[in-house]
Design a protein that fits this description.
mainly beta; isomerase; RmlC-like; RmlC-like_jellyroll; six-stranded antiparallel beta sheet; single chain
Length: 186
């Protein structure tokens, strides 16, 4: 696997080595040993999968301490724009984001460390999205910032009138009105 660093330290894109022939393809979608060597030590405890239609936007989500989550995400069918926003108080990249297109064809994965809000927009007719988390889901620790916050400067590649949001996701605060539970540390 190749690890591609982004503008925000710790947020990385992972490109697997894909072996193709007349039968199709094969790749290791996850190796704990290689992940630890190239990215760092993370113990994933829960895998999730969602299926969504074009225009669905999910996020920008996180879990509050002590149940913070790091995530390793990928799109196994279709195409999504995946985004991580730095919400660590005192971070030199606070409020900045990294966006990457994840598709069934590029097989890219995106690692989002703790202290980031995460979301995605479905760009294809449907998309199946998978993610590994290093902490179990705790509904009482749910948090979010508005996925439609224009101050974040995210081009979701979906016209606002086509965006499909859950009721919960329409109620998250804007970044300027948000008190982050995360603190940046080097």
């Amino acid at each position: 696997m190749e690890v591609i660093k982004t503008e925000i330290e710790g947020v990385v894109i992972i490109e697997p080595r894909i072996f193709k022939d007349a039968r199709g393809y094969f790749f290791e979608s996850f190796s704990q040993r290689e992940f630890e060597e190239k990215v760092g030590h993370v113990e994933f405890v829960q895998d999730n999968e969602s299926m969504s239609s074009y225009g669905v936007m999910r996020g920008l989500h996180f879990q509050r301490p002590p149940y913070t989550q790091a995530k390793l995400v990928r799109c196994v069918r279709g195409r999504v724009l995946d985004v991580a926003v730095d919400i660590r108080k005192g971070s030199p990249t606070y409020g900045k984001h990294v966006a990457v297109e994840l598709t069934e064809n590029n097989h890219r994965q995106f690692f989002i460390p703790k202290g980031f809000a995460h979301g995605f927009a479905v760009l294809s007719e449907t998309a199946v999205f998978q993610y590994k988390c290093d902490e179990f889901y705790h509904p009482e620790a749910d948090g979010g910032i508005s996925i439609l916050d224009g101050s974040l400067g995210i081009d979701w590649q979906i016209p606002t009138e086509h965006a499909i949001l859950s009721e919960k996701d329409t109620k998250h605060p804007l970044l300027k009105d948000f008190e982050s539970p995360f603190v940046y540390s080097k």
